[in-house]
Amino acid sequence: MQIGDLIRRAGKQFGSAPALIDGGRVVSFAEFDALTDRLGHALLARGLDAGDRVAVLMPNGIDGVVVYYALAKAGLVRVPLNVRETVHEHAYKVEDSQARALVYAGDPPAHVEVMITADQLPDLIADAPDGPCDVRRDQDAPLRLAYTGGTTGKPKAVVLTTRSELAEVANFLVDLLPNLRPDSVMLHAAPITHGSGAFFLPHLVKGAPNVIVSKFSPGAFLKAAQKYRATSTFMVPTMIAMLLEDTATAAADLALERLCYGGAPIATSVLQRGIDILGPVFTQLYGQAEAPLAITCLQPWEHTPDRLTSAGKPYTFVEVQVRSTAGTVLGPGEVGEVLTRGPHTMSRYWRRPEATAETIEPDGWLHTGDIGRWDDDGYLHLLDRRHDVIISGGFNVYPREVEDALLTHPAVIEAAVVGLPDDKWGERVAAAVVTRSAAEPDEILEFCADRLAGFKRPRSLEIWPNIPTSPVGKSLRREVRDRMVAAARA
Ligand code: AMP
């Protein structure tokens, strides 16, 4: 099976029903099938061959989605670029992926053989022949390259295949969205190039429309969610915090069944308020570019007060282990690295055989680089990224654990914990927090003191207006650390 087959079948089964809605524009299932066929033909007519990479720099919207799936039908490999990144980052990715074509809105970040502007798309589509565009490729051939967040080192591209994409759709349908039907509605409030994009196909195959909000704000989200009676959505934790700060949220008449979130740790105080205001709709997903969005999930009914810091249980068809540095499989309570295996994982890193060999074991187990532990009930608790671990006086301190303790203070809404160089201890623990009401650093430290062993307690705490985050909402601890080091030198 190919991705195009899913689109073709949805076109036949759901015909004139709305498949995509963006502001005033509505595209039916049959139209979406036809548009992607035509654009697929047009791309091939520009001299591109199956397997060529095509970088796509388009804002959140219908045209971007049409481009994505036209590429799949034409056997071309999609390289999505995040509009919120800089021109240098885009240029690097175009070069690293060896893209032969670039489809872009705005200024081009690079020049490659085939350049197509967003403005040219309507004419390209209008002039292309009708009929199926169906370049069939091996299920293990690259379908798309996803660049990882890049919070450390140069971004690497993860190679995802048709097999991994189909597995991701299946995982979502089994565990996250088991009740999808034609009157379900997905609201994309986050960039479709990232987490939210994974919700597109599951809804499409079940005849449910995908509604796109081109730019997130709590107001825009609430308006669209009420107008279209949205049943599913995806947010990163920062968006949830923003939504809950808006007083209109509690009063809104929403039809949400699933508010999926993930991609970064969430503050338990935010999550609890969210449940109080929006009800039992929260579904957490833990995944990564290398194992797209499906390692573990925490279901709405599992969001009990004692579990809010957990990332949930493995998806039904995904294997998960916690292993020691020596490679022993660990049981409940023991801290180690999280590994996962399943058809949804990446096949390799693009042009980085050494990184691939370090990450994927010969028997398919993938090292996530996340540190975690199981609890007695089989729930996974994530402690941290392997390389963010602070070593103070020979003890490992997991910043996440310290951040969680800080986040239990009612005034704290965001926290970043880092290790600063220290003559005596090697590293010492330092924190920056964002507060929603007045609070004194000493009082916050005092509050969390009994939740943390002495060596884990921050030696200093600063209140910042915001914590620097990456374009996809991950807190950039490295930047927090750099700022603190620079301030100490000044
Ligand atoms: P990326 O590959 O850029 O999507 O980043 C994936 C990383 O984000 C994971 O390896 C985790 O460190 C973190 N992450 C993803 N989902 C969660 C979650 N639900 N809770 C905590 N951290 C998460």
Automatic annotation (TrEMBL):
<dbReference type="InterPro" id="IPR042099">
    <property type="entry name" value="ANL_N_sf"/>
</dbReference>
<dbReference type="GO" id="GO:0031956">
    <property type="term" value="F:medium-chain fatty acid-CoA ligase activity"/>
</dbReference>
<keyword id="KW-0614">Plasmid</keyword>
<comment type="similarity">
    <text>Belongs to the ATP-dependent AMP-binding enzyme family.</text>
</comment>
<dbReference type="Pfam" id="PF13193">
    <property type="entry name" value="AMP-binding_C"/>
</dbReference>
<protein>
    <submittedName>
        <fullName>Fatty-acid--CoA ligase</fullName>
    </submittedName>
</protein>
<feature type="domain" description="AMP-dependent synthetase/ligase">
    <location>
        <begin position="8"/>
        <end position="350"/>
    </location>
</feature>
<dbReference type="InterPro" id="IPR000873">
    <property type="entry name" value="AMP-dep_synth/lig_dom"/>
</dbReference>
<feature type="domain" description="AMP-binding enzyme C-terminal">
    <location>
        <begin position="401"/>
        <end position="474"/>
    </location>
</feature>
<dbReference type="GO" id="GO:0006631">
    <property type="term" value="P:fatty acid metabolic process"/>
</dbReference>
<dbReference type="InterPro" id="IPR025110">
    <property type="entry name" value="AMP-bd_C"/>
</dbReference>
<dbReference type="InterPro" id="IPR045851">
    <property type="entry name" value="AMP-bd_C_sf"/>
</dbReference>
<dbReference type="Pfam" id="PF00501">
    <property type="entry name" value="AMP-binding"/>
</dbReference>
<dbReference type="InterPro" id="IPR020845">
    <property type="entry name" value="AMP-binding_CS"/>
</dbReference>
<keyword id="KW-0436">Ligase</keyword>
